[in-house]
Amino acid sequence: MNENNDMSSVDKPLWKRYFLHISYDGTNYHGWQRQLNGHSVQEEIESALRKLLRQERVVSVGCGRTDSGVHARDFYLHFNAENPIINKEEILFKLNLMLPKDIGLFGLWQVDYLAHARFDAIERSYEYHIHQKRDPFIQRFSTFYPWPLAVEKMNEAAAHLMRYTDFAAFCKTGGGQKTTLCDLRKAYWEVDDHKLVFHITADRFLRNMVRAVVGTLLEVGRGKITVEQFIAIIEGGKRTQAGESVPAQGLHLTEIKYPENKIRELIE
Question: Which of 122, 146, 152, 168 is deepest in the core (most CB within 10 A)?
């Protein structure tokens, strides 16, 4: 059985597959994915599941990867249990007691044995948070950026993103992406007093893409580049031409969408 436990046979396996709905403060983690030399959310989840389910091995598959320090308000993973989980509420309660306080669990349900947390996701949304006045109560989840910004120009530039599908200009070098094409569905800034939030939604994202897009839009806001130059950067497709990636703590994965019948149908 491989890590994804993809089944080519029509026969249903003896094990049961479950989706787990979680969120986490990424400050103390080297992202979601298990690392050789870093602390990960996946490591914490799998360790707790092994102990609680009394399984020798638990392999979880997340809906995506988050970089070190990035937060997730809406995150899904799947795992296989050797024995059916009868009382899901009790399991959730115990898992929340076992896990660190910066990881929260909200839902657990049995799904079709071919359901996949990553490949079945049809849409992902992120927010990037910026504050322009010192605010100690949000600095863990937002980036301090005190320079004046022309937000209307930033929104003008962001609107042009929807005209394109190739975002190689915002892809981290060596990211191992098979394609740099994305179906972008939303990209805009909103302002609330001294706080700015960038909203972006797509079917998928490239590694480091959102932080690179935000960094380049901030250059538009500061007048370092024009909207026309921003367009040229997209069309040029070279990461070296785009702006620097903004810090991780301002980035939040906020929503993952699945086809309802893919993950909500219980196996009878």
Answer: 168
